[in-house]
Amino acid sequence: MQAKEPLFGKTLDELQEIVRQEGLPRFTAKQITDWLYKKDITSIEEMTNLSKEARQKLSEKYDFGLTPHITVSKSADGTKKYLFPAGQGKFIESAYIPEKDRATLCVSSQVGCKMGCLFCATGKQGFQGQLSTNQILNQIRSLPEREMLSNIVFMGMGEPFDNLEDVLKSVNILTENWGFEMAPRRVTVSTIGIVPGIKKFLEETKAHLAVSLHSPFEEERKKIMPIENVYSLPQVMQAIRDTEWGRQRRVSFEYIMFKGYNDRERHVKGLVKLLHGIKCRINLLRFHPIPGTPLQSSDDQTIEWFRDALKQKGITTTIRTSRGQDIEAACGLLSTRELGKKESTKK
Amino acid sequence: MTEEQTKLFTNKIITVEQIAPEAFILAMPRLHDFVPGQVVGLTLDETDPPRLYSIASGAREDEMRILFNIIPQGSLTKKLSKLKKGDRIYVTEPFGSFYGKADPAFWIATGTGIAPYLSMYRSGLEKNKVLIHGSRSLDSFYFQKELKEKFGDHYIRCCTRESDRDVFKGRITEYLRQQRNLPTDYKYYLCGGSEMVVEVRDILVDKGIPFGNIVAEIYF
Question: Is the CB of A226 less than 8 angstroms away from the CB of B197?
């Protein structure tokens, strides 16, 4: 039997088309979005302000469409890593990161990744598929701590702008007043620099952008991030410079610190030159080595020196606290292990 | 964003030729200069975002050729395969920096990932190069006759599903694992699906090749 199509993850426009096709009153679409994105129900039957006939009609073709997690790993620091099934023996990860004044969920946008960055665990499992809007938003809606969430970051498995349409739809549903109604400044999408995606995202949403930088120099970046061969750093920076950012919106740059590779004085100077005139923040990250990588993390002393050197040059720079190290928080490790288990069972 | 990635130029198809099961070569007049290894965006509708393809022809040829195979879940490649002489196609300017250079190098590809190397060798950059191509079937070693003549022993085919004389039976990764004393001062160019690129890169790093000597182009 063919699985029913999920309603959860549909935009208002899509729901209007569905109710039109089903011959239901036009206002039904708005009623459905209220049930999907604002209330705490899990079935079409519970949409009690819809007529019984409407619920019956919808239930014939659709279901609500939520999928619970299958495992959770809990870190001593409070971080939790959830593993969600993504169909056909595939898995995705979401990391819940509680802090004193906020709680962030790091969501995945693809199963695996095609980008092949040298330092990334997700890339090691290859690309296994795109996540639908339903699967992206399910990570948020099916999170046991969803009421605590204040921020969503698209920094889990996959490159969000290689799944642009579903990521844009997800951001739309998260931020529209008929959707989850989150403030756009509470949503950040992180990219390695797919320029057409950056442009469309900046045009169509108001959410924050984060760019994985990892070197201010094209030739060095190219050696650890193959995307640089297609969309170069000057092109990425041009797309950012061409944008009117306004007062609320922010661009930040993620910078993993690799020992002896991107942590020198010349990198500080390179970053200052590259980011000149852009109001931004740099987040420095410790590298958590993955099996087989030739890269190592810079030590804490170097990372602190690097932060101070950038700050002295007027660039807001923070060191991101490593969270969930005891539960393989580096994205991709948990799902790769689970995938391995499934594959060894198959043999 | 730079104009080269977004501005579309109208072009006309010269030929679309099927060269293997599911694989085609599309030819059109060359509108712009390019560096071997660069990509162009192609689309048949100005409102659809262009998809990127490596150029497979030489930098000085009058025609620009694109090697592609049919992607079952994609919509563009099926339409491209049905184009006829004179049909309209929109192209971007060439861009990207997976450049072919004169330095000694291994050129490693699976499937249509061989396209940038075809462009490089047709632009006269084949000296000091070893070309390794992986494919499932023998008829998907595109232009093998020409490549055998040009590269001789430096043209290595790895085939997973069929066997033939002078063809390594197995995946490209198995071939590389079996190699001893790969030169550490050569450049290693990788082009193809991300899984191959990541796996080959790991093998090369494990064999002592500095990661700075590995240049990768991923298809996405």
Answer: yes
